[in-house]
## 1
Amino acid sequence: MRLFVSIFFTIFVPVTLVLMLTLHYSGRLAEDALTAPHAHELRGKSEILSENLTETEASEHNRRTLDYNFRLILLSVATSGLISFLLAGRISVPMRKLAQIADRIEAGDKNINFPVFGDKTMSKVSDIFHRMYSSMTKKQNELENERHKLQHVFTILNEGIILLDTSYRIKHFNRKAVEHLGAELTLGRNIVDSVNNMDVISFISRILEKTEDSIHHLELRQKMFDVHVRYLDNEILIVLYNITERTQYEDFKTELIGNITHELKTPLAMIMGYAETLLGNTSVDKKNLEKFLTIIHSNSKRLNNIINDILELHRLEHIPDGFSVDEPLQLDSALAEIEERYEGFEIKTVLNADCTEVPVLREHFMTLLTNLTDNAHKYSSSKVIEINVSRKDDETVIRVSDEGPAIPDEEKERIFERFYTVNKSKNRNLTGTGLGLSIVKHITGLYDGSITLEKNKKGGNTFVATLFERPARTIEEEEA
């Protein structure tokens, strides 16, 4: 409407002036006609008529003049209105459509068709809109793709990422952050207000204590974290590194090195001590010479056994999870080898099996069984050690039982640790390395199984090793 009024008043004045000038020009033509031949006759008649005009006729003449002027004004208004309407229509309709398109763009509508207008000027305006929209859409798609890439990177990171504003409201976080904290986070809320666990609140408060870039080494729910805090422009970036396994590994490595050093140092000290005695005293009598050499030999064997067990444990720890058992182990030959190994021992070894084959690698089966049997021979006062092998579906169970003494309950979990022993061997010549049961535990783990210790009816110990069948390799894996 405003456009129409503006155009109307813009056109009305010139149109009226044109009409007035046209009438004025017509009057001038009439006067010029009086100067032509016979004009004196017309003027003479006009003067005679004017003298004869009555007052009524003059009034009528004025009325007609006013009527004529009124019609002239109406004609100007009508002409101006018609022209204004046509021009307003040509401008307002395209403008209305462009305004609707702008509203759809603002609303995020991506399925927009730009019309082609008959008016060249409005078509150019529409084309400018279209180019701007295409450029904006392209940039928006690029930003969206970058955002998805960044979101994907955040998702696969092992580090927890939290982004806050200066009021500690959460602007972004990934799932690892939720997993590390053990609490749900809510976008737009203050990070302290969004959790209801006091341990997490205390953890976050300690992180945000400083108002500058910092690194914290903190514990949360028995997990260790390195927390890096970076203050950006109007934002705070928090990165959570779970270093629990690394810390445990460092502790384990320190303990392992200490244990290995201690275990190696003992036999080495014995060997070096007696060897130095022999070197410093060449006149040792035959009896003592034989005794010293026996000690050196036994400690050399112990040292060799420790090294072999360490290497075996290391090898087992580095067997890939995807190993397979292509052919089952035939128990006849394996049990015959075990029986021969312990033949002549003071303690009798009895073997029983309710199956002829088991889906276990021969190397793993023999290592597991000899370590359990050796342990019973070294630390048990039994007269008989029983070995039972059974199989049901995909499960193989190996039981090794002795007659005691029973291992205390508080020691049952620790005996599977490296270099841990409950007590000294009843026979010094059969002293173990403290790694046998740890090796057994690793072997059962390779088969997704377990090793447990039970007290049996004879008052002794029964070690129960459970192993599950490994899937055979496929043709594709064999070709690879």
## 2
Amino acid sequence: MTIRLPGRAGEEGAEGEEAGTPGAEGVEGEVLGGGKPFRMIQGKTYVIEGDEFVTENDPKGDTKIDANGVLQGGRQFKAGTFVLPRRHPERRYMLAIDAARTSGFRDSLYYFRRNPLALKLSATQPEKEYLIEIGKLGSHLRTRSVTLVTARSAYKLHGAKTIIDGKWVTDDYYEDKALEEITAKGLKPGDPVGELQEPQTAAAAAAAAAALQEPAQKAERGAGLGMYRAGGPTTLFGGSGLGPYSDGPLNAVKKSYLYHEGLDEANWMWAAAQRTAELNAELTKQRSEILKPCGGIFGDNPPGAREATQEVEAGEKREGTEGPEGEGRRKRRKVRMDDGGMPLGVYEPHSGVVLYREDTQPTRSRWEGLRDDGERRQVLGGTKAGNGAWALAWIDTVMEPPGEDLESKVAHEREQLLAQVAT
């Protein structure tokens, strides 16, 4: 297809344009993508067809997977695959997070960043409902963004890494490319892939080795590496153990937080120690409050508890402590005595709860409504009903020791209820 721009009168090349030769302002060429959707990646045009980028095919690789993403020769994907009838009746897809993890990547975001030829597809709401129905997607992701890739494109990118018990070159789509890569690593065709190491972890090891050899370049490391830096934490629930002002990864964010709080490299450790001490003091105070008898309602001296002075023979435990008269040295200490007036519990340190004896706990409870007398009302309420109603009630809690009268009364009420239910 030729697109000609008309030349201005008097300009050189105007006659050439009329003869079909492009002049200074003429443009001649083919439409990119041939009229199909396309995308420019690293200066090269890739057409989008069949929910994936059209890349170079390999005759050997085509014998291992067909056009719809179905593996051949008894091979199986590590990740689960499925068909989306709304897109194609036979083409196989997989979740992007599964494709990432089975290829050695932490998450789908890092997967797409490191693999620009993986076309990211967004699942529609009907597709998410369908995947939940067939058990390929958790119901908690119903309202979340879910990304997909075609199984064929995932296999073409990572080959043997995506296959159960995959073997280098044997299970790769591009055998020549895979052979060149594993030869540089000292591997041979047919060797098992084994456990995959995340590219970020490998980069961290390489960065650590380079840091040992070239300590002068520590300050330059980490610049321009983006969000996923070498040696980053592998979990959000634990740090790497590096200080915020060290050369560790992702420390720029920590430094910015400390800067806003008025901390610098000279005083941040002192502030951390001070906050740790404050937290320890707060936890110690909470534990001491829990250890107060009966919840502290009787103060520090509950009924039945008294303090006494007890003399302990120190000479029974240690030798060579006899005095001039040959008697063992005696030591005085204060102890708390309990006469059995109030039940004392046992502190359980793992849960921070004081446990009391079972015979001090109530075995049953009941509600007993009292009728209002003429002048005093137990319940003050409004005239409205429903959601606008309000009322104030006076409730007394009474602890009753078990007795024969109470037992017989409760048993009689139970018999009456059972008789009413039976009828």
## 3
Amino acid sequence: MEPPSASPRAGRGPWQELLLAVSLLAFWNPPTTAQVTVESVPPNAAEGKDALLRVLNLPGDTASLTWFKGETVLPTHKILLYVIDTKITNPGPAYSGRETIYPNGSLLFQNITLNDTGSYILQIINQKFETALIRGQLQVFQPVSQPLLTASNTTVTEDDSVLLTCSSSNTGISIQWLFNGQILMLTDRKKLSQDNSTLTIDPVRKEDAGKYECEVSNPVSFRKSDPVRLDVEESMSQPLLTASNTTVTEDDSVVLTCSSSNTGVSIQWLFNGQILMLTDRKKLSQDNSTLTIDPVRKEDAGKYECKVFNPVRFRKSDPVRLDVEDKRNSTGLRLGSIIGIALGVLLGLALVAALGCLLLHTRSGRVSLCCDLKELRSPASTPGHGAAIRCTYPDSLPSSTAAVPMYQELQHPEKNIYCQINHKAEVAS
């Protein structure tokens, strides 16, 4: 529908002044055209767009139409006056230059603003100077801007919690949450704040991993946030450290194994609380789960630990202490023990040898003394009649002494040595 041809800026004539006076006098008259209605097209207008307050069922005997802004009919609130017969339009104090009135009473708003929101009154005066007041409502909304979605952490561990927040610069909006492109289903673990701007997931489960979005909307527009991807790691369990042997001997080998129920984790080894330095003797398997020390040295003794970790957390094993003993010989005895035994044997042998020499020296001295005494006691001998003295060392002892214990022989050494004297010159008388 084309707007009236008369300029809204044209001056008022006597007839227009009369219509204005009559309309003011009849302002409080009850309406006679209750079937007349006003509707907003669209029902909710977007800022910067056009909107129309459309009049339906306008009576055929209408003489003039006047739009007012607000809840009351006051000259200061007048937007436009339109005279049907003359097609003359007369603006009022509330006219902004963006409004246009049509012969059917409809009012067009161009480039509508938020300030245009509110109530409007259409005053209809018929040819009998009867007045009717028809009310209309205009709702203007600002198009929403893209919201910002943030997460307290985008990589979390099972049983942890995560907070996602949807921020918007707009007011009077609704917020909806999407998960992997579908409307998010709330559960006991997934809860929204009162204004729907915050989503809390507690505790997090593996199935919560995926793409999250929030969508803000008002009656005239909607916008989605950029997606935020949530990654959920397995809960970190404590690794188990085992050793093929916790007490080893130098030059032996030992294998330590770090076992974890988690996947996608890295493994690090510690020795006495410090990061283990690898050498030609200390080697790790391809996945770092096994440490082999071959050969073992004394300096390898100490406390070993393994640590498993991912980008968000880590866990250490309980320590395993490795004891390293001195190298042993084929008998299984320690070198120190062997040296001690050998020294003991040598000392024992030396003691026995010294005691034997002492006994031998004692016996030899007594035999010599016996022979000397007999020689002194015998008379001078003459050729052919002298006494013959003979000292002998028997090769074997008499049978009567064969069973004599050694300690008795030591107490009576004279039984083993004797002197035999032949008196060839004496004849029994």
## 4
Amino acid sequence: MSVLTGFAPHFNRNKMIGSKKEDSQVSERKDRLTNEEQFCVGDVKIMTVSIALNIFGLLPPAKSSSLMRLIYKAFTIFIHVLYILTVLAELAAIAVHWGDIAVVANIMGAMAGLVASMCTSLHFLRNIKKFMSLIDMLKSEFIAKLQPKYMKYIFNAEREVIFCGLLLFPLAATIAFIWSVVPFLNTNPLTNFKNEKNVTEESSVDKLVFVVWLPFEFEKSPRYEIIIFLEIMVISFALLMICAVDIVFVCLMSHAAAQFRILCAKLNDMQENVSETVLHRRRCMPPLYTGTFMRQGPVPLNVPPSTHSWSADTENSGRFVVEMECLKNQNPEEDPLLQYLVECIRHHQAVLAFLDQLNEVVGAVSFLKLLNFPFLICMTAFQVTQTAESEQQLLRFLAMFSGGVYLVSCYAWFGQHVIDESEEVTAAFYGTDWYNQVPGFRRLLPVAIMRATKPAKVKAGVYFDMSFVTLAAVSGLLCITVQLYDTLCALVARHSGK
């Protein structure tokens, strides 16, 4: 007994030295992780696609001068005045050519896309502060508090949106180019189907990008060059501006899906992410010494002290009683895994609040685009079938049709991505080691699972959400489009019979 008692202080000194070394290593590891996190957060760049807003005149750069901001403001006013004048001229052209189905369908197909673009850009300019607050929230509330090992999900979200933009902007530029060069390729005026009757009343409407009515003769120079230049500017900026705003919408949706993915990863890495020092204090209590052996590890609370083998040594028995009292009096709210679960639930609530604000901003204009999509398909399909002999007209409307389909498909793709990732949170909550945790952990987890069961959605108005189901439903409206198409063909046949 005296030999063991003599070795005990020496063993305690070794354990204290080892414990200090471990604590210093843990603190060094923490400092290194903090430095890496600050480095990554400081260098990471998100919403890189928002530079398109600067390029196409919707938003001045962050550090621009007052003169530059004034130029941007004057340009946006000028281009939207052109939008409004073009739409009014198209409405006048519809009134002038009412009864000529080919010309009216031509005008309405182009006007549908122009109105959608104008409403999108005006909606963005009106809610620009809300957009900026969403981007700031993404940077300050999510990215700034993110651990370095989860930055890969942010980079993946950025890469997906950049890939989408690399396809979207060339497509928009191609459509603008096709619509701009078609007037120079046409040598014949627009004709009325089989009877080849000129419906333009000596006005070469095919020589313009948009079929419009003008109160003066525009065929003479330099009026024609000015009108064609302004129309090319309208079609180009209408397509590029709507793409710039939509790519920002899509980027916000992609980052929301990435936050759900990060939340799932954090829940899966719960044991790893909880501080090693806190876990050491909770699970690795100091060893208990007896007269014949040394007991390692924590003492279970559900076993009475009388069942433990411990000697009558006063110092060791006193330490055992103190440790038991500490375990009994431990506050469950201070459990590190419970606190980590609370942080994950707050993260989930923050992402849901972010999506609510996003729906507030993009809901109305997205609903307008979904309603415009079947009408665009109908007008485009009608023009393609009725002007099949004209390669220029066929190419122009096929390009517009492909652009509309790709844009709506991007919305549906990223919206479905948000739904899928939010549904994975339920499995991540349940996958935690909840059956080995404190009662507070087990009481809180079902509430989190119940809320995560309802998937998060990006809304398009009240009735639709951005998903593949909605895309299929909108495509299902093709039956209405077919009926409208049959009605137009019947009107054409009746008009030709006369």
